[in-house]
Amino acid sequence: MNHTAPESVQKCPARRSILDMDCGEAAAFLLKGENYCRIELPRYFGFDRLLGDVAQALEAQKTPLCYRRARQFEHVNHPILSSKDGKYAWRPLQLVHPVLYSALV
Fold this sequence. Notes:
Helices cover 34% and strands 11% of the residues. A two-stranded antiparallel ribbon has the order 1-2. With 105 residues, the protein is of the alpha+beta class. Helix 4 packs across helix 5. Residues 1-6 and 8-12 have low confidence and may be disordered. It has 5 helices and 2 strands; from the N terminus they run H-H-H-H-E-E-H. A hairpin with a 6-residue loop joins strand 1 (78-83) and strand 2.
């Protein structure tokens, strides 16, 4: 019995797990716009600059965000409704607030 992967899987480039990255590489990976949001949005939605600016502002801040008060930030995420089939099947999605996301990264 042949246990090799299908040809299409064998040709895929090797992927690297985030667990194999050091903290700087993982942060750089997570702060890329395409990794922050994978929802199909129009081209003019770009998150790279926003995430970079927020990360720089957080680094310059002298006091970090207090995660004990996270409940106060419960309703700051942005809800988006996405149609599954183009008709009446809608699913709610949320974009994590960029400041909270960057702070967690």
